[in-house]
């Protein structure tokens, strides 16, 4: 069993299990300032403008920040404070939730959290089922004492923002604005509360390797410490996602790329470590129901042209995603048509 990083005092060196082979290390520094990351303003009463901003950002990156989103600053602050307090709890309290069973909720783990890992990521994680509230709230950790109330308020507010964004995205694509309602977002809302302790040598390890999320959309906030990076369509170098105060980061998952028939990009991202400060992030995932049939929306396949992807169930997709360890191209290749 790998000992969670947050259970120990400050690390003076990177343990061998966390040292990546040279070809997998972070490499060169990101683009200066990360200024290329789009920012979508949800304020105002012009949905066409907002929809265009989302579609433009989705085409290039599949990832963007949103401001004027309506989640109260107090709600965000209390959730982040509770999350950071969790990782400061005594070892025995955290380890009571420790498990390598990926289906267990809630679950505290380190790296990816399974016993088959040969290479560990510089990350601890508390994985929580969040919505429907009545299904999950009685399972939430009782410590820290502030967590349950903070989690309920935050989940409710962020889920509402995500659904609004999906309605705007659907309209921007020319679909019925309710296209992503129903089975495409009927799965449980899951949150990864991630913690990346200060790393003595960020050049040799990663918090998370490059990947796209398997779901429809992810909404993320962090404690202001840099670490998240993304890259635009066509590959190339990595751009720092510089967190704007009070903003949320929105990341489209693989299902958005498939439903949009490749118009929008599943946001590829990774997490680098930080030598000076610990980073805590809250990643909230909206997912399809397991038996949801996913395919490109008919309105996005031009007359006389074929779909880029074959139909599948979300459960089938997750099997391929797990087998490919999240590798973007390998996962999509399992479902692409006319690959020749």
Automatic annotation (TrEMBL):
Tell me the keywords, alphabetical order.
Iron, Metal-binding, Oxidoreductase
Iron as a keyword?
Answer: yes
Q: Which InterPro entries match?
A: DIOX_N (IPR026992), IPNS-like_FE2OG_OXY (IPR044861), IPNS-like_sf (IPR027443), Oxoglu/Fe-dep_dioxygenase_dom (IPR005123), Plant_2OG-oxidoreductases (IPR050295)
Record has Transmembrane as a keyword: no
Report the Pfam families cross-referenced here.
Answer: 2OG-FeII_Oxy, DIOX_N
List, for all copies, the residue spans of the domain called Fe2OG dioxygenase: 185-288
A molecular-function term among this protein's GO annotations? metal ion binding
Domain of life according to the entry: Eukaryota
Recorded family membership = Belongs to the iron/ascorbate-dependent oxidoreductase family.
List the PANTHER family.
OXOGLUTARATE/IRON-DEPENDENT DIOXYGENASE
* Protein name as annotated: Fe2OG dioxygenase domain-containing protein
């Amino acid at each position: 069993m790998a000992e969670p990083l947050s259970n120990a005092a400050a690390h003076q060196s990177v343990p061998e299990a966390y040292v990546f082979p040279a070809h997998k290390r972070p490499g060169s520094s990101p683009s200066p300032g990360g200024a290329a990351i789009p920012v979508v303003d949800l304020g105002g009463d012009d949905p066409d403008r907002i929809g265009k901003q989302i579609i433009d950002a989705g085409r290039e990156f599949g990832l963007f920040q949103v401001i004027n989103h309506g989640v109260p600053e107090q709600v965000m602050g209390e959730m982040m404070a509770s999350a950071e307090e969790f990782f400061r709890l005594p070892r025995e309290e955290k380890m009571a939730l420790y498990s390598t069973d990926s289906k267990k909720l809630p679950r505290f783990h380190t790296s990816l959290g399974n016993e088959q890992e040969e290479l560990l990521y510089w990350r601890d994680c508390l994985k929580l089922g969040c919505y429907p509230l009545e299904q999950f709230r009685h399972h939430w950790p009782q410590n820290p004492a502030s967590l349950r109330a903070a989690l309920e308020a935050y989940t409710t507010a962020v889920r509402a923002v995500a659904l609004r964004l999906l309605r705007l995205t659907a309209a921007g694509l020319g679909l019925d604005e309710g296209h992503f309602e129903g089975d495409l977002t009927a799965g449980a809302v899951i949150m990864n509360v991630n913690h990346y302790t200060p790393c003595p040598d960020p050049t040799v390890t990663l918090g998370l390797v490059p990947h796209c999320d398997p779901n429809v959309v992810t909404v993320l906030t962090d404690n202001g410490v840099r670490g998240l990076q993304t890259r635009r369509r066509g590959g190339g170098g990595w751009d720092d996602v510089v967190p704007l105060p009070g903003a949320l980061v929105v990341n489209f998952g693989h299902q958005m790329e498939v439903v949009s028939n490749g118009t929008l990009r599943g946001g590829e991202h990774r997490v680098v470590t930080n030598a000076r400060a610990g980073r805590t992030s809250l990643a909230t995932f909206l997912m399809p129901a397991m038996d949801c049939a996913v395919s490109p929306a008919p309105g996005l396949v031009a007359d006389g042209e074929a779909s880029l992807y074959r139909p599948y169930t979300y459960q089938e997709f997750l099997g391929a995603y797990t087998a490919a360890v999240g590798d973007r191209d390998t996962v999509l290749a399992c479902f692409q048509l006319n690959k020749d």
